[in-house]
TrEMBL record:
Protein name as annotated: ATP-binding cassette domain-containing protein
Domain ABC transporter: 23-263
Transmembrane segments: none
GO molecular function terms attached to this record: ATP binding
Keyword ATP-binding: yes
UniProt xrefs under PROSITE patterns: ABC_TRANSPORTER_1, ABC_TRANSPORTER_2
Originating organism: Streptomyces johnsoniae
Length: 294
């Protein structure tokens, strides 16, 4: 079941976002510098309680856009407004407050979690960094968050390497939720996981959104995943948004050639293959049942 689109106000808006990087051409350190425009005039908006998916192939600028929105990168030009306030020039305590409201879950859970720290230290670190008290104490707070994201609270003293990839990503989600954000940026947060684990993490994110009203900026290249979680979709190509729309309308009737190409590349299950798979499964179940009765 795909999520319904709730009526809600605009929470976060990006207007005219541009990000340029200075890179060297051929010749390595002695090559001439040139400017690479990774994000080129991007406009997007995220509504409260909704999921906006930014999709596109590698190098399209979607992850750079996410980092600009979260203030992990500084904009070259353009604005990011959160609840009506331009956050692109914030610093000090004001920037801390903004980062409490907008948190990030990264693609590779193992590289984004300190391997020397326990889950308890990882989850409580954002609060400690911001000088905020930990409600109920570190142990109780961590156990409650672990249970909330589907982890065993008794494992709060374990280290990231002692968890599977899906479990480690749940730790990353718990860390993001620790400061009580309104927006969670999921930067390819399920792309490194097995398909079955992807579905579990997607279901977790959807449940948390239903229960707590989080807004997600969901970065992905897999449109099959996007269809499960997004309310709106913005398609990026060569640093620009080429099409934006409600999920169902965009999937049913894409207006841009690039969007159509992306949708055409999504693997589809042919009905005859699915029927054959189900027939084989029924045959195995029948054979196993006969063995059990003999």
């Amino acid at each position: 079941m795909t999520p319904a689109v709730p009526e809600s106000q605009v929470l976060l808006t990006a207007r005219g976002l541009v990000k340029e990087f200075s890179v060297r051409g051929q010749g390595g350190a002695f090559g001439r510098k040139r400017v690479l425009r990774a994000v080129d005039g991007v406009d997007v908006e995220l509504r409260a309680g909704q999921t906006l998916a930014l999709v596109g192939e590698s190098g399209s600028g979607k992850s750079t856009t996410a980092r600009l929105v979260a203030r992990l990168l500084e904009v070259t030009s353009g604005t990011v407004e959160f609840q009506g306030e331009d956050v692109t020039r914030l610093s000090g305590a004001a920037l801390h407050r903004f980062r409490s409201e907008v948190q990030v879950v990264f693609q590779d859970p193992y590289s984004s979690l300190n391997p020397r720290h326990t889950v308890e230290r990882i989850v409580t670190a954002p609060l400690m960094y911001q000088g905020r008290p930990i409600p109920g104490g570190a142990r109780a707070f961590t156990r409650a968050l672990m249970e909330r994201v589907g982890l065993d609270p008794d494992h709060s003293e374990r280290h990231p390497a002692q968890f599977s990839g899906g479990q480690a990503q749940r730790i990353g989600i718990a860390r993001a939720l620790a400061v009580g954000p309104k927006v969670v940026v999921c930067d390819e947060a399920v792309s490194a996981l097995d398909v079955s684990v992807q579905a579990q993490v997607i279901n977790l994110l959807r449940r948390l959104q239903r229960e707590e009203g989080y807004s997600y900026l969901f970065i992905a290249h897999d449109l099959a995943v996007v269809r499960q979680i997004a309310h709106r979709v913005a398609v990026m190509h060569q640093g620009r948004v080429v099409e934006t729309g409600e999920r169902d309308a965009l999937f049913a009737s894409p207006g841009h050639d690039y969007t159509r190409a992306l949708l055409a590349a999504v693997p589809r299950i042919r009905p005859e293959w699915e029927a054959a798979r189900r027939a084989r499964a029924r045959t195995r179940e029948t054979a196993e049942g006969k063995r059990e009765t003999t």
